[in-house]
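User: Hi! I'm working on a homework problem where we have to compare a predicted structure to a textbook description. Could you give me the structure for the chain below?
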Amino acid sequence: MKSLPVFGESLAAYWENLTHDAPAFIVELKKLTGPVADIALAGGAAFSIGILELALSIFITFFCFCTVDA
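Assistant: Happy to help. Predicted structure tokens:
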């Protein structure tokens, strides 16, 4: 990582600091859990809405096919 042109040295120093300081690592992880939980919740809601719309469309299509005269 040190060989990256612009920010490699600072990233390597940051990572080295985190690997040797467990409490700082946990603090950094706690900063990330909030946004990750929000993204997961939004993704789950979008998936659930998609499944609900699919089920509703299948339900409506079933009744459209049942009422058609053959």
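For your comparison, note the following. The two ends are 69 Å apart (CA to CA). Helices lie at 8-20, 22-67. Good luck with the assignment!
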